[in-house]
Amino acid sequence: MEHQDELSVALLQMQDNLRKVADEHAESLWLQSAMNILNAKLRGYRSLSDLSKNVLDTLASFCEAQIGAFYVLEEDAFQVQYRFGATGPLPPPFRVGEGLAGQAAADRQLKVVHPVPDNYFQIESAIGRHSPAAIVLVPTLFDEKVVAVIELGKFGECSPLHLRLLEQISEPVAIAVNALLAKKDLEGLVRQLNGKEKELNGRITAINRSNAAVEFDLNGIILSINQQYLDMTGYSEEEVLGRHHSIFVEKGVEDTKEYRDFWKRLKKGEFIQGVFKRATKSGEPIWLQGNYNPLIDASGKPDRV
To answer: Which helix (H) or strand (E) holds 93?
Structure first.
């Protein structure tokens, strides 16, 4: 009889162990499946709002949450990118340490709040408004910095399996959010540079309209010339492009040591300013006050004048 009792106890223990193994295996499969789906959701987004909506909706479905919000750190404050389950105006931006989500960001670890504060959002449904039983706050860190906070609320308690999912997905979410923030910063920089380029082009246009200008290579060959310079010297553009600067000086000057030294200095990148005697197409002398400014290329060498 005693032997049968021991055998019964052993069988019961074996059944319990088998159930535990089966349950652990089922949880592992569920967790891996959920992570695969969420990782796929993190790819290919062009905006923070789209990423936030899809990730939060998917997490809410897996964790059986009825209310949620996705906050992203922008300009030193967390701002709502997407929320569901609550109506009314959006909450104002908050900093690290402010409010429940700000406290989670300060602690830099998952936080479960139970019971929920009285002033927390209520869940809207067809049968009225109800407060959630628990809130889960998930700060996501990239390079030791919290870049986003995920907030989920639900009527029931949060299971350990759901909490494991939220902990594991936080790093991939942070990587995706940081990539979009970097993309947004880069786009802003490009817009700023484009604005500076337009401003610079506008200034160049203004200079060309009010000043005579001509561009040479380092050998003195004319690359471009504006209308003011053409009008002043009496040439047409076709007559000067590809010709040497010497067409603008009196005959014989191009053979002098002074003129050769002038171009040697420019080739070295030396800025030359002063009053210069030049000649028109008809040979008439004219005096010009101006400067010759060598342009430096990316390698730091003179490229044009």
So the answer is: none
- Encode pLDDT of 182-202 as tens digits: 888 887 777 777 777 776 666
Give backbone dihedrals phi and psi of 94, rounded to 5 degrees, phi first.
Answer: -135, 160
3-state secondary structure of 100: helix
Contact 226, 213 (CB under 8 A): yes
H-helix segments, the chain: 2-41, 48-63, 99-107, 160-210, 227-233, 237-240, 257-267
Q: Which residues contact 278 (CB under 8 A, 6 or more apart)?
A: 233, 248, 249, 285, 286, 287, 288
Per-residue pLDDT tens digits for 177-186 = 888 888 888 8
pTM above 0.85, yes or no: no
Query: Which sign, positive or negative, has the C-alpha torsion 6, 8, 14, 19?
Result: negative
- Which token pair is 184? 């947004």
Rounded to whole angstroms, the Cα distance separating 204 from 224 reads 14
pLDDT digits (tens, 9 = 90+) for 82-117: 988 776 778 888 899 888 888 889 999 998 887 766
Residue appearing with tokens 């200034």: 203
| Contact of 155 with 124, CB cutoff 8 Å | no
d(CA 230, CA 280): 9
Contact 246, 277 (CB under 8 A): no
DSSP H/E element including 119:
none
To the nearest whole percent, how much of the chain has pLDDT over 70? 82
Cα radius of gyration (the chain) = 37
List, for residues 211-220, the tens digit of each pLDDT value.
778 888 889 8
CA–CA gap between residue 186 and residue 284 (Å, rounded) = 55
